[in-house]
Amino acid sequence: MRRRKLAYGIMMGTCLTLFVLAWAVVRLFSPPLAIAMSVVAMVIPPFAAVVANWGVDRRD
Q1: Relative to the CA of 35, which of 16, 18, 50, 58 has its CA 20 to 30 Å away?
Q2: What does the pLDDT read at residue 51?
Q3: Angle value at C-alpha 45, between 4 and 25, nearest 5 degrees
Q4: Distance CA 53, CA 40 (A)
Q5: Residues 43 and 10: beta-carbon distance below 8 Å
Q6: CA distances for 3 relative to 33, 53, 58, angstroms
Q7: Do the Cβ atoms of 4 and 52 come closer than 8 Å?
Q8: Environment class of residue 22 by beta-carbon count within 10 Å: exposed (0-12), middle (13-18) or buried (19+)?
Q9: How far apart are CA 5 and CA 11, in angstroms?
Q10: CA nearest to 25, candidates 40, 39, 37
Q11: Are 15 and 44 in contact (CB under 8 A)?
């Protein structure tokens, strides 16, 4: 459980960092790169959710 939480936190932290860097810094130098970084950041949360729920016992 701890490993999944850590992986989820790292993935979401990376996502947030990409968004902030893309629109605070990178857009000033290369708008297409900022858009590409945002697209990559948008793909991360679904995978983070899968990682966070991997192996969860679904029995009631």
Answers
A1: 50
A2: 86
A3: 115
A4: 21
A5: no
A6: 32, 11, 19
A7: yes
A8: buried
A9: 10
A10: 37
A11: yes
Q: Give one DSSP letter per residue of 2-51, joined into a string.
A: HHHHHHHHHHHHHHHHHHHHHHHTGGGT-HHHHHHHHHHHHHHHHHHHHH
The DSSP call for residue 60 is -
| Cβ atoms of 19 and 38 closer than 8 Å | yes
pLDDT digits 0-9 by tens, 7-59 = 899 999 999 999 999 999 999 999 999 999 999 999 999 999 988 888 776 65
Q: Which residue carries 């947030």 as its tokens?
A: 16
The pair of three-digit structure tokens given for residue 25, joined into one six-digit string? 């810094």
